[in-house]
Amino acid sequence: MLFIALANPMTGLATGTLDTLNNIIYNEDYPILDGMEMMCKLDIFIPDKDDERNVIPVFLIHGCAYTVWYDKGSMEPICQYLRHKGYTVFNIEYEGRGFLPLGLRKKGYKATQSIAAAIKYVLTMSDEFAINPDQATLIGVSAGGISSLFLGLYDELNDQEYSLFKDLEDQFGGIYSNSPFISTEVKPAAVVSIGSALPSLDIIDFTDLEETSFLMIHGEEDEMVSIDEDTPFGAIGDSFNEGLRRFRSNYSNRNRTELTEALVDLFEPDKLAEDLIIPDIFGSRAIVNRMVSINPEAVDSLFLNNEDHSMLFGERRNIPKRAFINIMEKIDVFIQESTLKYRKRFTAGDFILHPTTRVVATSIIGLGLVILFIKALIL
To answer: Nearest-CA neighbor of 130 among 73, 66, 50, 210?
Structure first.
């Protein structure tokens, strides 16, 4: 099979086959992203047929609970399905790991910054990838679904929304501005959120639903992320919160010495325990109800009976379940309908090659130049 390399102006080369370009690092040597614990990478799945969907960039965002480690490989069945349908697919691996569930809110914020940086990185090279940035589509699963929703809804310039996350922005910088491509906007045409939730419904407003369409998919038996309002992680989350509340109660009632008072001033354990309590989140049904009350045309839903958090994959996370094809067919139709209004009408003078054709054409041109050079030397 022919191998190719994609020139990366910031990181050098990423190699792959004509089907996939692997492990392009998008946060290396970016001072504004310093402090991230891992290299953030993405794979590019090149469509295997000429189709009007070739120009639609689809960004896949894997789940990880913002705490435990799952990589982008868990999303490969979705990537392959969409590539065969004709989409150009970008599978993102992002910052988001730690100890369950310490610092969950902070890690979710940093993960979303990282995902936004990946999307911006791709959109700045839309000509090279022959994609239409106005048709950008996000598909997120679990924690990735939360981030995809956030990127489709959050407006840093909205004072009410900004106030919800001001403390994190003061500490880590803005969601969208924490990237080398500060002027590049992330305004997806479509967002597919699978098994996810939101920390607040207040970030949903009419403006968001004018620009972006949403598809909410959720299993009705999901105990990890409830389809309604609840504490995430099910019984584990409830037990964790109960333990923290007992600690705060016992700690506040105990006798304190001069030494313990000094330790309190230094470590602030009471405040730490308060910060670590996992807040309730609003699941897909609550989100859909809010969106429908604002603009029913902007949201669609697929709530699955007798399905839990593993509605797409089995226990190994990379083996599709029986419902996989039906869910993916629904997603395919949704993407096409939601991005239709942003389709560019190319004039006769416009000529954009399908990515695979472009690679082959470039190789042929290069070979031709080498032959001409050799002939010139002989003559």
So the answer is: 50
Compute the distance between CA of residue 272 and CA of residue 240 in angstroms, rounded to an integer. Answer: 14
Burial class (CB in 10 A: 0-12, 13-18, 19+), 2: exposed
* Cα 321 from chain centre: 22
| Ranges under pLDDT 70 in the chain | 1-19, 27-39, 68-70, 96-103, 178, 232-279, 315-317, 345-379
- Which two tokens mark 226? 């409830």
Is domain 3-231+280-378 in CATH 3.40.50.620, yes or no? no
**Dihedrals φ, ψ of 153, to 5°?**
-120, -35
Token pair, residue 359, equals 């690679």
Cβ(67)–Cβ(100) under 8 Å?
A: yes
Per the CB < 8 A criterion, the answer to whether 39 and 28 are in contact is yes
Q: Which residues pair with 371 in a beta bridge?
A: none
pTM for the structure as a whole = 0.78
Rounded to whole angstroms, the Cα distance separating 371 from 366 reads 9
CB 92 within 8 A of CB 72: yes
d(CA 158, CA 288): 21
